[in-house]
C-alpha cells in the first residue's frame, strides 16, 4: 500500500508498505480522507514536541471498514471516523472520563504512525460510525471537536463576551461552538484572509486585526471590561502571555495552544481579576458528538473551511505549499 512518511523535518517520502494485519480487537480501515492539521505542519517543520522520526502523519481521518470481528456493530463498507487519541482506560485521567489527557496517551500520527496511508488498523473502541455525514465531514470532526472541547472547558454561556485569539482551524472551531452557545464572539488575528473566513463563514460578531491599536479596539467594543472568556489558539508563547490582558475581571482564560516554552504572567494582573487559567487538550467522545450533531443540523460551514485538496501520492510534492500564507489555506483534505 502507498504510504507517505515524514522521514525527517522537511522531508516527505513515498514508501510501499505491507497492508497491516488486523489484530484481535481491532478494525482494519480503508482510509479515504485525512485532514491536514497544524500538528502535521509542525511535524514537517520540526516543531512538534512529542514526536520522533520517521513518522507517518495524519490523525484527522475518515474511511470505510475493510475487516472487523463479528459482534462489533460494524460491517465491511461502513463509513467511519476515528478518535485518534488512543487512551489506556485505566489511569487517573481515564478513570475520571478525561480520556483526552490520558497519562499513557498515544495519538495517531504523533506517538504512533497515522493515516497518510491506504490502510490502518485501529482498536475498535476508537472507531465510530459516520452516519448522516460525508467522508469529508467525518475527516473534519477532530479539529472541530478540539474547538468544542475548549468551549466546554471555558463554560461559555449565552450572552457572554468571548474573544478567540488565532483564527486558524482550531480557533475557528472555538469561535463556531462559542457562537452556537449564544456568545458574542470576537476574533483577533494578524491575517486578513483568516478574519474574513471568521466573519463570513463562522459569522462571528466582530473581527479585530492584530497590531497597533488592537487592545484599544477590544476595550472600546466591551466598554473597557474586556471578555468573559478568552481562548488562545495561536501557538505563540508571546500571544499566550499577552492574552491575559484581554480577560475580564472574574473571567476565564483557556489555552488551546501548546508551545515549547515557559509562560509568564504578571501576578498582580492575574490575581486582581481572580482569573481562571485553563488548559484544553484534545477532545472527548462527548465533544465529537457535539460536532456530529451540529453537522447533521447544517450548522457547520465545512465546505467553506475545506479550502484545499491533495491526492495521497501528491503529498510529498505539494505539502510545503500548505505552509504558504499566500495560498490562503484553512483546511486541506488529503484524498486516499
Verbal overview:
This protein has helices at residues 38-45, 92-95, 135-153, 169-180, 192-200, 214-221, 237-242, 267-273, 285-296, 302-305, 315-318; strands at 2-8, 11-16, 26-36, 60-67, 79-82, 85-86, 106-107, 119-123, 127-129, 161-165, 184-189, 206-209, 227-232, 247-255, 276-279, 306-311, 331-335. The chain is globular. It has eleven helices and 17 strands. It is 28% helix and 28% strand. The protein has two domains: 2-145 and 283-335, Alpha-Beta Complex (Quinone Oxidoreductase, Chain A, domain 1); 155-279, Rossmann fold (3-Layer(aba) Sandwich). With 336 residues, the protein is an alpha/beta fold. The relative contact order is 0.15. Strands 3, 4, 5, 8, 9, 16 and 17 form a seven-stranded mixed β-sheet that branches. Strands 12-11-10-13-14-15 form a six-stranded parallel β-sheet, with helices on both faces.
Give me some keywords for this one:
about 325 residues; alpha/beta; Quinone Oxidoreductase, Chain A, domain 1; Rossmann fold; 2 domains; seven-stranded mixed sheet; six-stranded parallel sheet; 11 helices; 17 strands
Structural class, by secondary structure, is: alpha/beta
Q: What is the overall pLDDT average?
A: 96
- Could you give a short account of the major beta sheet? 7 strands, mixed
Oligomeric assembly? single chain
Per DSSP E runs of 2 or more residues, the count of β-strands stands at 17
* CATH C-level category of the largest domain: Alpha Beta
Q: What is the string of SSEs from the N terminus onward?
A: EEEHEEEHEEEHEHEHEHEHEHEHHEHE
Give the helix level as a range of percent. Answer: 25-40%
CATH architecture of the largest domain: Alpha-Beta Complex
Strand-residue fraction? 25-35%
Amino acid at each position: 500500500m502507498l504510504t507517505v512518511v515524514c522521514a525527517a523535518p522537511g522531508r516527505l517520502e513515498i514508501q510501499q508498505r505491507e497492508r497491516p494485519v488486523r489484530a484481535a480487537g481491532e478494525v482494519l480501515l480503508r482510509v479515504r480522507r485525512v485532514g491536514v492539521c497544524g500538528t502535521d505542519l509542525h511535524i514537517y517543520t520540526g516543531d512538534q514536541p512529542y514526536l520522533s522520526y520517521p513518522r507517518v502523519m495524519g490523525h484527522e481521518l475518515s474511511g470505510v471498514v475493510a475487516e472487523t470481528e463479528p459482534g462489533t456493530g460494524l460491517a465491511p463498507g461502513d463509513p467511519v471516523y476515528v478518535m485518534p487519541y488512543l487512551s489506556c482506560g485505566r489511569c487517573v485521567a481515564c478513570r475520571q472520563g478525561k480520556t483526552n489527557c490520558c497519562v499513557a496517551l498515544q495519538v495517531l500520527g504523533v506517538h504512533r504512525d497515522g493515516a497518510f496511508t491506504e490502510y490502518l488498523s485501529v482498536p475498535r473502541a476508537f472507531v465510530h460510525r459516520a452516519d448522516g455525514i460525508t467522508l469529508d465531514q467525518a475527516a473534519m470532526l477532530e479539529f472541530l471537536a478540539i474547538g468544542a472541547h475548549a468551549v466546554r472547558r471555558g463554560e461559555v454561556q449565552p450572552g457572554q463576551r468571548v474573544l478567540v485569539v488565532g483564527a486558524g482551524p482550531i480557533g475557528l472551531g472555538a469561535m463556531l461552538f462559542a457562537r452556537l452557545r449564544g456568545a458574542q464572539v470576537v476574533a483577533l488575528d494578524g491575517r486578513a484572509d483568516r478574519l474574513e473566513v471568521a466573519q463570513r463563514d463562522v459569522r462571528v460578531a466582530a473581527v479585530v486585526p492584530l497590531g497597533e491599536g488592537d487592545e484599544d479596539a477590544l476595550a472600546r467594543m466591551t466598554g473597557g471590561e474586556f471578555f468573559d472568556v478568552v481562548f488562545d489558539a495561536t501557538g505563540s508563547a508571546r500571544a499566550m502571555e499577552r492574552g491575559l490582558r484581554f480577560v475580564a475581571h472574574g473571567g476565564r482564560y483557556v489555552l488551546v495552544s501548546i508551545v515549547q516554552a515557559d509562560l509568564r504572567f504578571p501576578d498582580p494582573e492575574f490575581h486582581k481579576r481572580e482569573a481562571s487559567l485553563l488548559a484544553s487538550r484534545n477532545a472527548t467522545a462527548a465533544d465529537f458528538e457535539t460536532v456530529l450533531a451540529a453537522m447533521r443540523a447544517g450548522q457547520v460551514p465545512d465546505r467553506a473551511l475545506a479550502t484545499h485538496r491533495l491526492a495521497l501520492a501528491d503529498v510529498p510534492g505539494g505539502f510545503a505549499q500548505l505552509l504558504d500564507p499566500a495560498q490562503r489555506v484553512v483546511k486541506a483534505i488529503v484524498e486516499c
